[in-house]
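Re: the request from the purification team.
They wanted to know what the chain is likely to look like in 3D before they choose a buffer screen. I agreed to run a prediction and write the result into the notebook, where they can find it.
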Amino acid sequence: MELDRRLNAFRPDLAADTLEGRVEAARFVRGEPASVIVPVAALRPVPDLARGIDTELLHGEGIRVFDRAAGFAWVQSDWDGYVGYLPEEMIGPQSAPTHRITAPRTFLYPQAELRKPPVTSLSMGSLITVVGEAETRGTRYFLLPSGEAVIAAHCLPVGETAGDDYVAIASRLLETPYLWGGRSGFGIDCSGLVQLALMMVGKKAPRDSDMQASFGEPIGREELRRGDLVFWKGHVGIMEDAETLLHANGHTMTVARENFEAAVKRIGWLYDLPTGYRRIV
């Protein structure tokens, strides 16, 4: 069986050493640990900025770098194993993050002062390294090694979770723009919403909807309740309750709520009926 190129780093000239004996390649390498140093890094199947993106990596996330050439790095995500190319300037040395961003989006300030123009923005799920704290007019900040600051209330220590209700996390992303391949609070797709929300409650899920279709346990349509997943060919949604679907979709171009039965009828003309239902355990 041919290996999935999305989850396995192999080319005719080079492959991950973990694949030796399973694929043919001129060289096998262990790869170099590194981290993402931009707010969001788009991962592509080829080193070409004109190509569509497969997924995104968030600030501070760990990766393994197998190759660097012509300004691109060929990498694999530590979190979900996704493989692809991104501009080399988007990665830096391996970091030791201490906290994760929990707000859908937050600002990074040049110092502990919200009246200062932000340096950049960070998405939910991003990882940062906190080296100190400060307070200005009653607002508490975490300080980064650069001296930059983020609102402390928008963070949790790595290892702690934002509760256990991943549907509540997903609902915080309502009205977030739909973005094919998106996985952040700035833009997200259907399976990205599922993966990001689950990550925030400490659960690791595959990245794409076809991978998620084998995640959890199968159930019948009549059993649907809050937190269950509904799959169509190329699409996935989250049941907010027995009658309401929460999903990032190309119809509204946002993360939106929709009556489940109405969604089945609307989606049916293009993608037919749901292909399956899963319960996360």
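For the purification team: Helices lie at 166-171, 190-200, 209-212, 260-271.
Please add any questions underneath this entry.
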